[in-house]
Queue: 4 jobs
Job 1
Amino acid sequence: MTILDGKNVSNDIKDEIAAEVSKMKENGEKVPHLAAVIVGNDGASLTYVGSKVRACERVGFESTLIKLPNTVSEIELLDTIEELNQNDDIDGFIIQLPLPPQINTQEVLMAVDPDKDVDGFHPTNFGKMALDMSTFIPATPFGILELIDRYGVETKGKHTVVIGRSHIVGRPMSILMGRKGFPGNSTVTLTHSHTKNITQITSQADIIISALGVPNFLKAEMVKDDVVIIDVGITRVPDETRPRGYRITGDVDFENVSKKASFITPVPGGVGPMTIAMLLKNTLLARERHSKL
């Protein structure tokens, strides 16, 4: 059994990006600039955005953090997005989700310039991804592809089962794993809350990508020997023995499933670190795209 170590791979990617940025600086070129917009004071969002800012510093990117109050109106937020769209110094930006209830999330994501949408959420980019065109792939699916690629996990002709159909992970992964090329060329089954006999489906899978958000959902009896497990789930489970009063748990019963798996991602330390690394990679791609305009 091989651990798909997202922490190590993400550090390798950051080192590679830092080397590219160092060359840009030596040549007197503009370095990539990532902006993040956060609304309100959600603890998890603040932590996540803070880690993105630190990642930018590590690789030599410029970064801008725009904090808006929880009471901000949709019009004010859309005005901020338009300013970022028009700012030639900003290569890419993200809107940290979730947004407060007075704001229509879909309207906000639609307002982002697709050429600066380094989260890959805009319908233009999602559509290009579905058509196998060059575009920004959402950071978490992009990170999963990179892990599969760097560990040389075979996907051609394999049966991939995706658990969960969110627009952020499940649905894009079902498209990407079925595309031509590597990683891809697998036969994909997309499962969700209305899927019947899910154990019958997962037990036939060569690769399982779980993005359900239900702790320890996937048990050992639901998988076959030598299965590849990608666990995207991250849930805080109360645990009085931990200093913070909780532990982070994935969708997979790691202790038992790992005994049957050929490859498996840990939680934490698997897919999570890859998401920020690929956000940086998308920003680098955005900067290259803008430099050619």
Job 2
Amino acid sequence: MQLLDGKKTAEDIKCEIAAEVEKIKAQGGKVPHLAALIVGNDGASLTYVGSKVKACERVGFESTLIKMPSTTSETELLKKIKELNENSEIDGFIVQLPLPEQIDEQKVLMAVDPRKDVDGFHPENFGKMALDMTTFIPATPFGILELLERYGVETQGKHTVVIGRSHIVGRPMSILMGRKGFPGNSTVTLTHSYTKNIAQITTQADIIITALGVPNYLKAEMVKDGAVVIDVGITRVADDINPKGYVITGDVDFENVSKKCSFITPVPGGVGPMTIAMLLKNTLLAREMRIARNE
């Protein structure tokens, strides 16, 4: 069993991006600028956005963090997004989800300029991804692809089972694993809450990608020997022994499943760190695309 070490791989990617930024500076170019927009005071969201800002500093990007109160109206948020769309200093920006209930998430995602949508959530970018065109791939699926590629995990002709059909991970992952090229060229089964006999399907899988958010859902008896397991789930589970009062747990019963795997991602330290690294990579791509358009 080999760990797919997202923490180490993300650090490697950040070093590569930092070297790229140094080249840009040496040539007198403008360094990439990533903005993050957060509405409200959700603890997990604030931590995550803070990590993104630190990552920008680490690689030499400029970053802007915009905080808006939880009482912000949809109109106010859309106005702020319009400002970011029109700000020529900013290469890419993200709107941190979830949003307060008074705001239509879909309307907000649609309002982001696709050329600055480094999260890859805009329908235009999703469509381009599905058609194998150059675009922003959502950061978490992009991170999974990068892990598979850098560890040389064979995907061609394999049976990939994706558990969960969210627009952020499951749905794009099912498209990407079936695309031509590497990683890809696998036969994909997309499972969800209405799928019958999931265990029967997962035991036939060469690669399992689970993004359910149900702690320890995937058990050893659901996995065949030699399978590759990618755990996207991150759930805080109450734990009185831990000083924080909780532990971070994935979708996979790691202790038992890891004994049967050829490759597996840990939680934490697997897919999570890769998401932020790939957001930086998308921001670098946004800058390159702007230069190509002579903007």
Job 3
Amino acid sequence: MSGANRQSVQLVDLNADGEKEAVAFFRATGDRPLRLCIFQKMADTYQLCATIDGTGSAIDSVEYINIDGRPGLEIILGWQVSDSVTQYLGVYALDGWRVTELMSASYNEYCTVDLDSDGQSELFLLKSDAQTRTGIAQLYRYDGSQMEKEPDVAMSVGVENLRRLITGYMAPGVMAVFAASSFEQSGIVTDVFVLQNDLFYNASVSDDGSGLSAQTVRNYFIYADDIDDDGIIELPMPIQLPAAREGETEEFWVICWYNLTLEREQEPKLLTYHNYSAGWYLDLPEAWKDRLTVYRTEGTAGWIYTFALLDDAGGEPTPLVHISPISGSGSKLSNGWFVLGAVSDLTYAALIPPEAAKLPEGLTEKELIDRFHVIRYDWNTGET
């Protein structure tokens, strides 16, 4: 039902002998209607050598991961017991062709991750209750003979539905799990789980005893991401910009991206303006942060977005750059407009006003082109 492995028959080398076994999935009758069959290749044919039966309505997911550190792969099966959100997870090891269940647990979402960087994957599970708005994270590690569970760790207080679960480095050499959940219907809270010095904990929860993550993001489209491609996951903090003119009601926001340290401190990394409806974002100079305003006007091919600096004396903002979609490929641009890049079937162009070129905060054409990016979309959810 989910995950990367959805074929009815899958080929995988489970016992590390260099020959791929055939793993096939069937629906039978009786009390345990779901069946996984493992076939070993014998000369020119395949022979059934092991089965795993389970109850439920469907198999939610299957993964093949090294859990115990020995040659070969373990099988992680998620069983969809009913139409409810909570599901049942089993980890199965092959000893010869005898199947041993290493652990089982209920879950809402799970992932495999090497949190302690020892070369073996751990099993990370999330369980949440939307009605009570509580959730816990669980981590299972193989201790040489069985799967041991670390003490449960609480998610942020008030979390509702999990929206995204990713793994990545929160700092050099420090792997983490980033869990983004709905919060109070209009926001998202991101929990960051790490394992340091054999202690499993939520690195994003504040030390003030509130049980809340250090930063709540109030925009469903903003998730943790390696925005600057440095191999470290950044967290987003949206900042509302001041209005360009008095009485302006349209809101514009920039995003301050930061790394979360093990000491729960925030290290700013990047400032961006994301235009989610158009599919592009602009990497902003730090010098623009405290005086920037954005407004838009109607153009011939769509909205023209203007980035401008506010006047300390309260005068009209000074435009730094205009960005607009254009018709065609942009080969016949004039009056100072130049191509920034393309998003789907639209080409975007920019214009640097003459007064902006004289400002120390101004950017060159090359700098603007380098700072213009297409928003990446998650293939699984369709979200950014």
Job 4
Amino acid sequence: MKAAPIVTWIALLMLAVTAITAQTKINFDKDKIGVPPTHFTTALTGQGKPGVWIVMADSAQGNVLAQMDADATGYRFPLCVYEKLVVKNADLSVKFKTVSGEKDQVAGLLWRYRDKDNYYLMRANALEHNIVLYKMQNGKREALPLKGGINSYGKKAKVAAGQWHTLRVVVTDNLFTVYLNGTKLYDVEDSTFSEAGKIGVWTKADSVTYFDDLQIKKQ
């Protein structure tokens, strides 16, 4: 008769563990300021300096992840990858703020990361005011067409520099649904990278960009 409460407690514990495993949110608040965050590695697609990724304090967000190196090499894509999780299908989001950059002011969210030259990427540009979804294959970046054949270079959207925004992509097999600040923009279909991969963030050229609240919900 006394076993039932124990069984119930174990069941609740298993549900809690499943929920934690299914959803991960990283806000950098427990990371040390001035150094790279724990459980992340950095890499570079393209040429130029590799990027400087450190944790900084932001007045609105608390601790944030910042890419601080402003090397203006054109085909330069510094990235920072979360190493503790590999997923195929997920609801992914990250907050970002572009701080500076004369050539570019961008923020990117990447998924199904295999290595520094192979992954999917969604990026927001505060100079062009658009959101574009790319695949990076063998180090070559290619903008993917919107579902329905509307065009091959994303969609215009207001991305104000110096303000916090939220990028989100829902990844379901070969279908990627793109959002900015809670508003759906478009769908993309592609099967180049069909296996599970890592998640991370990304910048371009001389962009100095802050990131926070990287969220991964397994589908």
